[in-house]
Amino acid sequence: MAVTDLTRRTFLARSSVLAGGLAVGVGCIGSDDDSPASNADSSRSGTEPFDPSDWASVREQFPLSTDVAHFEAFVLASHPHPVADAIKRHRSGLETDTERYLAASEAEAEAAVRAGAAEYLGAQPTEIALTDSTTMGLGLLYAGLRVRPDQEVLTTEHDFYSTHQAWALRSARDGVTVRRVALYEDPAAATADDVVARLMAAVTTDTRVVAITWVHSGTGVKLPVSAIADALATVNAGRAPDERALLCVDGVHGLGVEDVTVADLGCDFLVAGTHKWLFGPRGTGIVWGRADAWSAVEAAIPAFEPQSFGEWLQGLPAEPMDGVRFTPGGYHSFEHRWALAEAFGFHLDIGKDRVAARTHEQATRLKSGLAEQPGVTVVTPADEDMSSGIVCFDVDGESPTDVLGRLADVGTVASVTPYREQHVRVGPSIVTTPDEVDALLTVLAG
Ligand SMILES: Cc1ncc(COP(=O)(O)O)c(C=O)c1O
């Protein structure tokens, strides 16, 4: 499909025109006083306009309860108002005049999501596939990467269920060999040099895929993805294109936190849900693939984009794979998918650098405070280069679940890591504050 070169800002302007145009054309779609779109605006009457430079104003964009400190950005997003308003606008259009709103909106709205994602990632729109979650993206990618019987996949001991099981399913289906390597023993002491050395020592001439996770949700360790990419580039230099080791990254706990582009990361594929730290619509995600890496993948679900459909209608051979063609087809919960443009816009308006600084500032404050408390062991590295927003720790003589209970009693939401080895896990983000970090530390000290 020829994806139009919309910028985020032009889309946001255009989408209001689109809604307005439809309202006139088909009997006031979305203009009824009882419509969700109208309710979205009235629900915030009396509040100040959004000021992306002011953290209090950023927090006000979230309907999250204010009697609770929400340290759970690694789970699932609450929708900030610009995202919620876009969902309501699209839902109203779809509820009121389904077919015509779909026909009038689909191409432009989906192009706007890709344009927003591309601006955010520093990528090309056609390199981006739209999915429903990290898990869906990993499942589709790891099912579809061409790996010959004489080649193998290298992943790590630290990846989440979704990566391990996506490869286990693939292996059960076609017998592909999957090996795992440990990148550190003590997460708090993990260093970039050691991680790269351990990973590269496990890469062989048969390694076709290196499947890693940017920020480990079991320990909070952030992998030095660009250093890994550099090391793999050296190995790949002498290899034919279909022998290259492809670097695939589950990026869900780095996206929406770190101020980097896909070029900075240097990987071949980046898979992420956009409904955690990015605070995008629940049930959304992306797969970004380098333009020349998409040819290594086959789709499992037919795309619904016009060119693929046209090829089927006319009996033509398929054009080369890209992010658009990798996007699973069928109709979706479009009001959520299309509102992802506003989520990227929300972060870009605040500034990726400011989001990263705000998150790291709180995470560092939390780790330093925890390190001073007797009986507390911080699992996540103190080094900002080796950590992100996730902070994991243990308390002597107290189970992670008991610690959570103690925090919950005073209105702090965190979690226990969903791994065999369990720790308390806390996620400072743009919806939490340094004061809430201090309050958490006081509770733990008490
Ligand atoms: C590293 C990692 N990848 C993937 C997931 C799953 O993300 P999603 O809900 O977007 O599939 C999680 C946890 O939810 C995770 O910790």
Task: Report on the architecture of this protein.
With 446 residues, this protein is of the alpha/beta class. It is built from 17 helices and 13 strands. The strands form three sheets. A seven-stranded mixed sheet has the order 2-8-7-6-5-3-4, with helices on both faces. Strands 9-10-13-12 form a four-stranded antiparallel sheet. A two-stranded parallel ribbon has the order 1-11. A hairpin with a 7-residue loop joins strand 12 and strand 13 (424-426). Helix 2 packs antiparallel against helix 4, helix 4 (81-96) runs antiparallel to helix 5 (98-121) and helix 15 packs parallel to helix 17 (434-445). The radius of gyration is 22 Å and the shape is globular. Residues 1-46 have low confidence and may be disordered. The site of pyridoxal-5'-phosphate (PLP) has 12 residues, from helix 6.
Shape: globular
For the record, give the distance between the C-alpha atoms at the N and C termini, rounded to a whole number.
59 Å
The kinds of small molecule bound in this structure are: pyridoxal-5'-phosphate
**Estimated structural class:** alpha/beta
Total DSSP helices: 17
β-sheet strand percentage: 5-15%
Low-confidence stretches: 1-46
Average predicted local confidence, pLDDT: 91
Following the backbone from N to C, one meets helices and strands in this order, namely HHHEHHEHEHEHEHEHEEHHHHHEEHEEEH
Find the count of extended strands (DSSP E, 2+ residues).
13
Major β-sheet, in short?
7 strands, mixed
Helical fraction = 40-55%
> Radius of gyration, Cα only, in angstroms?
22 Å
